[in-house]
């Protein structure tokens, strides 16, 4: 009887990011797991509870959702010290792409969407069998030369889901039509609706417009007085066009001008990606030049528009057109303000003018953090033991970014992790998505 099968939804005791402690199972971070539980209930599995490292051994099956690459490290640490038991572990979520360093911490990996798949993985786990579905990887039989597919659906999940905080979650979009070459959201999720991607209003109140610049250029209204975040994803036109982010310098300048002239000047966070393979500081200076060009035509204002540039180091994500590209082995934290500010300003400010000032976010990840991401996305079976040691080391967790970097360089081949790959050597070459991204790997 399905109702007799005890399924535990695993909750980490410690999270890699402090915000996850509050957000997991409360708002957006694990709304996906709430959908998985609902799918299982519709398939007759009703004995589902939360689980932790203290009681995981009491369940028949443990489910864990990897929402980001950083989730793996604490899960590996906790999974290693579970009490012995007969439970099977099924891992899924958007952070499950490269399974090779994690074959010894999970029995099954669900790739992509859970619909029409998760119940098959549960059945295989209960019977200790290989799951024959191409969207599920069984650890014992994994073969890098086989082909596994990221599961897709053609419609959003039809049911309302009540989250732990009482809010109702209803999936409103899947995938994205922007086709930015670096982005897993586009290439790992086939779009189920035709409108452009926007973040769900469940957690941001509609104040974020990732596509604001292009929307305005195309005549779509954007309330700039309410806008709080948008995306640029490249500091020069050359870089942006190279990753299919079609924001010209003219579009950027027009947006900056409108933003500076809006009724209520305020801070807007510009999400950016830094460290693309061919990027140089010349690309950075182009962004500064565009700000200066706009600002010099504006009148002096006491209350100014603030540009908070938040940069994320480039990761070559699996199952994307840029999966084989090299990553720059460089610590970018604080570098934009240092380079563009040229010693003229204090702290992380890199421009201050008539109506605008620009500042670099200090939340750019350290190089050590990017190395850990590279291990998750490009690591192989031989990295599993060292990954486990690092994950379980309290000394490593409390170390400085510099010490972490040196430790990772000692135990992992960072030159290989950050280097170029081919279709034949890419660690995740077994992974297929809804379109043939491998055609763009040359």
Automatic annotation (TrEMBL):
Name of the protein: Radical SAM protein
Organism: Hominibacterium faecale
Lineage: Bacteria, Bacillati, Bacillota, Clostridia, Peptostreptococcales
């Amino acid at each position: 009887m399905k109702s007799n099968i005890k399924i535990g939804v695993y909750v980490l005791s410690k999270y890699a990011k402090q915000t996850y402690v509050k957000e997991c199972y409360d708002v957006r971070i694990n709304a996906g797991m709430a959908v998985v539980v609902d799918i299982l209930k519709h398939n007759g599995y009703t004995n589902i509870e939360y689980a932790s490292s203290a009681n995981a051994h009491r369940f028949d099956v443990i489910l864990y959702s990897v929402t980001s690459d950083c989730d793996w490290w604490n899960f590996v640490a906790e999974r290693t010290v579970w009490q012995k038991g007969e439970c099977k572990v099924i891992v899924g979520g958007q952070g499950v792409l490269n399974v090779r360093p994690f074959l010894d911490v999970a029995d099954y990996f669900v790739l992509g969407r859970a619909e029409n798949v998760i119940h098959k993985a549960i059945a295989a786990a209960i019977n200790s069998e290989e799951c024959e579905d191409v969207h599920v990887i069984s650890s014992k039989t994994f073969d890098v030369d086989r082909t596994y597919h990221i599961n897709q659906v053609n419609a959003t999940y039809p049911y309302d889901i009540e989250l732990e905080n009482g809010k109702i979650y209803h999936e409103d979009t899947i995938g994205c039509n922007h086709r930015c070459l670096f982005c897993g959201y586009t290439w790992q999720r086939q779009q189920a609706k035709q409108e452009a991607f926007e973040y769900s209003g469940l957690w941001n109140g509609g104040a974020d417009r990732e596509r604001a610049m292009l929307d305005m250029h195309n005549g779509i209204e954007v309330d700039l007085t309410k806008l709080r975040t948008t995306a640029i994803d490249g500091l020069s036109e050359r870089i942006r066009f190279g990753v299919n982010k079609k924001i010209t310098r003219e579009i950027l300048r027009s947006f900056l001008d409108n933003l500076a002239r809006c009724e209520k000047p305020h801070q807007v966070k510009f999400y950016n990606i830094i460290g693309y393979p061919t990027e140089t500081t010349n690309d950075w200076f182009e962004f500064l030049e565009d700000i200066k060009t706009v600002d010099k035509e504006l009148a002096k204002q006491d209350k100014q528009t603030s540009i908070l540039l938040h940069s994320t180091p480039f990761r070559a994500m699996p199952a994307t057109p840029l999966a084989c590209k090299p990553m720059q082995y460089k610590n970018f934290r604080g570098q934009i303000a240092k380079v563009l500010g040229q010693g003229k300003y204090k702290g992380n400010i890199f421009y201050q003018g008539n109506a605008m000032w620009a500042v670099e976010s200090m939340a750019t990840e350290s190089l050590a953090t990017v190395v850990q991401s590279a291990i998750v996305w490009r690591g192989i079976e031989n990295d599993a033991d060292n990954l486990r040691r690092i994950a379980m080391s309290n000394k490593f967790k409390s170390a400085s970014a510099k010490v972490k970097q040196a430790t990772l360089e000692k135990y992992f081949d960072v030159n290989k992790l950050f280097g170029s790959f081919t279709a034949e050597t890419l660690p995740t070459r077994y992974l297929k998505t809804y379109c043939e991204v491998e055609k763009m790997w040359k």
